[in-house]
Design goal:
By secondary structure, this protein is mainly alpha-helical. It is built from four helices and two strands. The chain has a two-stranded antiparallel sheet with strand order 1-2. β1 and β2 form a beta hairpin. α1 runs antiparallel to α2, α2 runs parallel beside α4 and α3 packs antiparallel against α4. The longest helix is centred in the middle third of the chain and has 33 residues. The chain is elongated and about 55 Å long.
Length: about 140
């Protein structure tokens, strides 16, 4: 589209989208939908660049990173299954570790699963939109 107004707004809105995506991921990892909605917001930040500049330029730049996001997301999802399989507990039982920092910080497999969903949804959304931009109907 190459709109000057959208290009100027993109510089500021991109940061806001990524911050809200991270907030929703962290807030939502104890509730349903945190990783999914956060991943959609993160992908929307990149898609907005396609609206501001052109879909072809964004597609050529982000296709490899979208595949990487999808692969890393699926890897994180599968890694969140491993502790419950090793300990012999029910499938996808949550496990937590305490970090030796002040403030009693705990990391668990539900957070790893949500981060994996976040990355996988962002990657799939970007691959979907990249494939749409390559279609003749959208040109």
């Amino acid at each position: 589209m190459n709109s000057v107004i959208l290009q100027l707004a993109y510089r500021y809105i991109r940061f806001i989208f990524f911050v809200f995506a991270f907030i929703i991921l962290m807030r939502g990892h104890n509730y349903p939908g945190g990783g999914f909605i956060g991943g959609l917001l993160a992908a929307l930040a990149i898609v907005y660049k396609g609206f501001a500049y052109s879909l072809e330029s964004v597609g050529s730049q982000t296709e490899r990173s979208a595949q990487w996001l999808l692969g890393m997301g699926l890897s994180a999802i599968f890694m969140s299954f491993i502790p419950s399989l090793i300990t012999g507990k029910s499938f996808m039982t949550g496990h937590w570790i305490r970090l030796p920092f002040p403030g009693d910080i705990k990391l668990g497999t539900p957070l790893l699963f949500d981060v994996g969903v976040f990355l996988a949804v962002a990657g799939v959304t970007l691959l979907f939109l990249i494939s749409l931009s390559k279609s003749e109907a959208w040109k």
